[in-house]
Design brief:
Layout (H helix, E strand, L loop, with lengths): L34 H9 L6 H24 L6 H14 L3 E2 L12 E4 L2 E3 L13 E6 L1 E3 L2 E2 L2 E6 L5 H19 L7 H14 L3 E2 L5 E3 L6 E5 L16 E4 L2 E3 L5 E3 L6 E3 L5 E3 L2 E5 L4 E3 L6
Antiparallel strand pairs: 1-5, 2-4, 3-14, 4-7, 5-6, 8-12, 9-10, 11-16, 12-15, 13-14, 16-17
Helix pairs in contact: 2-3, 4-5
Length: 293
């Protein structure tokens, strides 16, 4: 998207996020709106240039190549720290930096979350067991650009509960992504996820959300995985954000362990997550960390 003033159509959704049509909102100010400046000044959202998008995509390509290596190593008997070792070494080998390492004190290069762990699990001595589910969340920084994605894998032979929560979490992300289009809103994404997941008898975690990404690890806007259609900031081309719903088989409540990172379900139920980095395009969306859901 070029950095220039852009005329907004009278009947377009106003980029200020009010949810109103432009003719009934900021058009009354009688001025051209620079979308890039408007989003930066009003929301602190960075609309990415083509060069920045290309850089984020290269980081995403590296991420997915590492994720493929992780998928091949998942099996009963694997120590979670072995996942960390692979992710760290492959990231450094590519000339990149593992974003999680030392981020606000996080001690490892990847998050590994098993069963009732919702997110931010710290790799260590824990051994994967047959029937577990495990989420692996990877974020490399390549040439200054961040890409962020996670997948939940079966360990050995999954039980019925594991199959259900992984299926619902994957479909939740798919529906969230499919809600992305110019003129749609952040509330549309959240509603698509929430209505599906809760309709399957599962719950959506509230405390952790998606976010802008690319120039920094966590940028604006926050992307809630629950919400009301038509509410929130309107999506425009050049936005790059993560959609990463955390779905619990039981209730949504959680607590954080004494390590101040590991979030687990209050009721001990299984939790699963899938995440991709998504670019809003003129036609709809593009995943910069694509994999099949």
């Amino acid at each position: 998207m070029k950095n220039k003033s852009v005329k907004i159509g009278r009947n377009d959704i106003c980029p200020c996020g009010s949810g109103k049509k432009y003719k009934n909102c900021c058009r009354n100010e009688k001025k051209e709106i620079s979308i890039r400046d408007e989003y930066k000044n009003r929301y602190d959202i960075i609309l990415k240039t083509p060069e920045q998008i290309a850089g984020i995509k290269r980081s995403g390509d590296l991420l997915m190549s590492i994720m493929e290596r992780v998928e091949k190593m998942i099996k009963p008997g694997l120590k979670t720290d072995e996942i960390n070792t692979l992710v760290h070494e492959e990231t450094i080998k590519a000339g990149a930096i593992p974003a999680p390492l030392n981020y606000k004190g996080f001690p490892k290069s990847v998050c590994v979350s098993i069963n009732e762990v919702i997110c931010h699990g710290i790799p260590g001595e824990r051994i994967l067991e047959d029937g577990d589910i495990v989420n692996v969340d990877i974020t490399p920084i390549l040439d200054g650009y961040y890409a962020d994605a996670s997948r939940t894998f079966f360990v050995g032979t999954p039980g019925s509960d594991a199959k259900k929560i992984v299926s619902v979490a994957a479909e939740s992300l798919k529906r969230g992504i499919e809600a992305v289009a110019p003129g749609a809103t952040l509330g549309d994404i959240g509603h698509a996820i929430q209505s599906y997941a809760e309709g399957q008898g599962c719950s959506v975690v509230r405390e952790f959300v998606g976010h802008g990404v690319g120039i920094d690890f966590h940028e604006q806007p926050q992307v809630l995985h629950f919400g009301t259609p038509g509410k929130g900031v309107a999506l425009v081309p050049g936005m790059v954000l993560t959609i990463e719903p955390m779905i619990n088989l039981g209730k949504k409540e959680l607590y954080v362990l004494e390590d101040k990172w590991t979030a687990v379900t209050n009721d001990g139920s299984l939790s699963a997550q899938f995440e991709q980095t998504i670019l809003v395009t003129q036609e709809g969306y593009e995943s910069l960390t694509p994999y099949e859901l």
